[in-house]
Amino acid sequence: MCDATFTTERRRRRARLRDAHLYLLVTAAAARGDWLAATEHALAGGVDVVQLREKSLCAAALLERAAVVGALCRAHGALFIVNDRLDVAAGVDCDGVHVGQGDASVASARRALGPHALVGVSTHDAAELDRTLAAGADYVGVGSVYATATKGRAVPVGSPAGLAPLAARAEAAGVPAFAIGGIDVDRARAVAAAGFTRIAVCAAVLGAPDPTATARTLRGTAATQGSRRNEFLGPRASEAV
């Protein structure tokens, strides 16, 4: 792929990311029934970004699942992100990878996937955010705003009001910031009221009786706050490639 194509693809992905308000982490165990059907219904409800997060699957099974989820995302115009596994992300048609603080670095991800790929990073405090922004991440997850069982291990828990300033700093630098951790429809209102304009969820949508309606409600909550924020702040601080 030539440099011009790389640049065009990266611009497209970053533009889609700038417009994103609802990020869905897909883990089959979180679904009420058929995880794939729930994912498709959620996409129909307006999910902007899907991250495939299956820590227990072997590479072959994860590659197979990634191909299916990636096709769904493309059909709905959503970004598709692979959690952690650079080898899997490099082997499928995805938009990027998400890494934690103890996983691969942003630089390693870019070397593995190329300059056109999006790289997201989990952050929990100001020091981690500073390092992540300096490393050149395309977006950040900020949390945990509430206690969550998704990680399967203990994670630092803050609060929407306590963590919102981190999101504001990232957004001011032109880096989209998604609140993450234990968010459901009711809590999403508090998260948005604290100042977050983007949220990431898992069981709240996949485990809902109506994933489409739930996704639509959650996205609407975050997007409404985003519209209010933009009225005061104007265009984003950075639109650079």
Could you please describe the fold and organization of this structure?
It is a single chain. This protein has 241 residues and is an alpha/beta fold. It has one domain (3-233): Alpha-Beta Barrel (TIM Barrel). The chain has helices at 3-18, 35-44, 59-76, 86-91, 106-113, 126-135, 160-172, 185-194, 203-206, 211-233, and strands at residues 22-26, 49-52, 79-83, 96-99, 118-123, 139-143, 177-180, 199-201. The longest helix is centred in the last third of the chain and has 23 residues, at 211-233.
Which tags fit this structure?
single chain, 241 residues, alpha/beta, TIM Barrel, eight-stranded parallel β-barrel, 10 helices, globular, disordered C terminus
Concise summary:
The protein is an alpha/beta fold and 241 residues long. The protein has a single domain, classed as TIM Barrel, CATH 3.20.20. Helix content is 49%, strand content 15%.
Q: Catalogue the unreliable spans.
A: 236-241
N-to-C series of helices and strands: HEHEHEHEHEHEHEHEHH
Overall tally of structural domains: 1
Tally of DSSP β-strands: 8
- CATH architectural arrangement: Alpha-Beta Barrel
Distance between the termini: 17 Å
Radius of gyration: 16 Å
* CATH fold naming: TIM Barrel
Strand order of the largest sheet: 1-2-3-4-5-6-7-8
Number of helices in the DSSP assignment: 10
Shape: globular
Mean pLDDT: 91
Please identify which CATH superfamily we are dealing with: Aldolase class I
Q: Based on the structure, what is the oligomeric state of the protein chains?
A: single chain
Q: Sheet with the most strands? A: 8 strands, parallel, barrel
* Percent of residues in β-strands: 5-15%
Provide the helix percentage. Answer: 40-55%
- Assign the structural class, choosing from mainly alpha, mainly beta, alpha/beta, alpha+beta, or little secondary structure: alpha/beta
At the first level of CATH, the class is Alpha Beta
